[in-house]
Amino acid sequence: MSRTRRLVRAGLRLLPLSAALLLTLGALAAPLCEAAGLFDAARVLYGALGGVCHQAPSRSLFLGASHMALCARCLGLYGGAALAGGAALAGSAALAVRHGPLPARPAALLVLPCLMDALAPAFGFWPQTAASRIFTGFLAGSGIALFLYPRYLSLIDRAMSPCSAPTTRPSEGETT
Question: Of 78, 106, 107, 128, which residue is least crowded by CB atoms under 10 Å?
Answer without folding.
Answer: 106
